[in-house]
Amino acid sequence: QILVINPENGALVSKIPIPATEVTGCCFGGANLDILYVTTGQYGSCLRESQPHAGKIFEVKHLGAQGMPGRSVTL
Questions:
Q1: pLDDT tens-digit profile of 27-60?
Q2: Please, are residues 19 and 42 in contact by the beta-carbon 8 Å criterion?
Q3: Can you point out the beta strands (E) in the chain?
Q4: Residue 46: how many CA atoms within 13 Å on its side-chain side?
Q5: What is the structure's pLDDT at 43?
Q6: How many CA atoms lie within 13 A of 11 on its CB side?
Q7: Which of 4, 8, 22, 26 has the most CB atoms at less than 10 Å from its CB?
Q8: Would you say the pTM of this structure is higher than 0.85?
Q9: What is the pLDDT of residue 51?
Q10: Is 21 within 8 Å of 14 (Cβ atoms)?
């Protein structure tokens, strides 16, 4: 799950359920940076059997939140 925390007072605002126990990261994306992408891990064969969604990337929409744009880099 993802916890939504109020940055001003540290209070828990809400919880976003993710159908996998090993959340490994999240970031905002999409044209308006309003889609939260959540990555999950898949460690061991026991998770593959008990959690068929482990190891996938999830897309969470309609959060009412927006990410900040990253810096452009030319490699």
A1: 999 999 999 999 998 876 566 677 888 889 999 9
A2: no
A3: 2-5, 12-16, 23-29, 35-40, 57-60
A4: 2
A5: 76
A6: 3
A7: 26
A8: no
A9: 83
A10: no
Cα angle 24-30-36, degrees, rounded to a multiple of 5: 30
Structure tokens at 7: 């940055």
The single residue listed with the structure tokens 């976003």 is: 16
DSSP-assigned states of every residue in 26-46? EEEESTTS-EEEEEE---SHH
* Cβ atoms 43, 21 nearer than 8 A: no
pLDDT at 26 exceeding the cut of 70: yes
Give the amino acid at 28: F
Rounded-to-integer distance, Cα 50 and Cα 27, Å: 26
Q: Which two tokens stand for residue 72?
A: 């452009």
